């Protein structure tokens, strides 16, 4: 098994190529994340953070370059195989929770497991365990609209970890929260990542939070470099 959870080689992404509106967002990006490594990504708004995370998480494909996840070259896979690799290895946390409003906190964590073929009993047990680990057992039957912003985001963290991904990608996971709540959600996120030994790439504007990670990178002039 590869010691690298994520490897990008020479990744470029150019929107509206060859037109007056051409945007060169990523150019020749190289990035490796080792197993168990927690890496911060600090980048100004509009610099290509989301584009990079989408490519790393197989939601978008680069114009050139290679994306390897868990030892597999994703750029060579057909759509169905890419989707399966994403489902089995990557978890996402976004700035806004994107929980399904009509389902309870527990159901939001059960559903991705059911989609991956886990039995209802096992999925419910894992959802209960995850909610317990972020201090939300008393909120398991609440719908997202009945939860605070910090609680919603803690549920979103549990959902991202539902299928025990090898790689967690987080795009400003606390960007929508006040400083105190942001701290709590961030602590929960990093603790769960460390406890399970997964790798993470966490984009944040918050330099204090970024400093707690193993390594901090920045995105500058379409390249990823040490911060
Ligand atoms: N589908 C697209 N078509 C054209 N341009 C795009 C597309 N997606 C992103 N861009 C442009 O690429 C640049 C990077 O966008 P991206 O969303 O990756 O930035 P970001 O760093 O995540 O910004 P923010 O922090 O504000 O979300 C921006 O200038 C954006 O306008």
UniProtKB/TrEMBL annotation:
Gene3D superfamilies cross-referenced by the UniProt entry: P-loop containing nucleotide triphosphate hydrolases
GO cellular component, one term: plasma membrane
Sorted UniProt keywords: ATP-binding, Cell inner membrane, Cell membrane, Membrane, Nucleotide-binding, Transport
Annotated ABC transporter domain residues: 6-227
Pfam families, A to Z: ABC_tran (PF00005)
GO biological process, one term: lipoprotein localization to outer membrane
Residues annotated as signal peptide: none
PANTHER family tied to this protein: IMPORT ATP-BINDING PROTEIN, LIPOPROTEIN-RELEASING SYSTEM ATP-BINDING PROTEIN LOLD
Official protein name in the record: ABC transporter ATP-binding protein
Source organism: Paroceanicella profunda
């Amino acid at each position: 098994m590869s010691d690298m959870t994520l490897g990008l080689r020479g990744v470029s992404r150019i929107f509206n190529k060859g037109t007056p509106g051409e945007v060169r967002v990523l150019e020749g990006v190289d990035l490796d994340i080792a197993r168990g490594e927690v890496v911060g990504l600090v980048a100004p708004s509009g610099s290509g953070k989301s584009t990079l995370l989408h490519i790393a998480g197989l939601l978008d494909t680069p114009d050139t370059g290679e994306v390897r996840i868990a030892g597999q070259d994703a750029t060579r896979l057909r759509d169905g195989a890419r989707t399966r690799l994403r489902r089995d290895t990557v978890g996402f946390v976004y700035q806004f929770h994107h929980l399904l409003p009509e389902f309870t906190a527990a159901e939001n964590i059960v559903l991705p497991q059911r989609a991956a073929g886990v039995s209802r009993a096992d999925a419910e047990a894992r959802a209960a365990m995850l909610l317990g680990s972020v201090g939300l057992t008393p909120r398991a039957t609440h719908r997202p609209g009945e939860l605070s912003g910090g609680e919603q985001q803690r549920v979103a963290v549990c959902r991202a970890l539902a299928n025990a991904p090898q790689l967690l990608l987080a795009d400003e996971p606390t960007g929508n929260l006040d400083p105190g709540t942001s701290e709590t959600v961030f602590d929960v996120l990093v603790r769960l990542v460390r406890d399970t030994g997964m790798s993470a790439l966490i984009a944040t504007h918050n330099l204090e939070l970024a400093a707690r990670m193993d390594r901090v990178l920045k995105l500058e002039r379409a390249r990823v470099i040490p911060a």
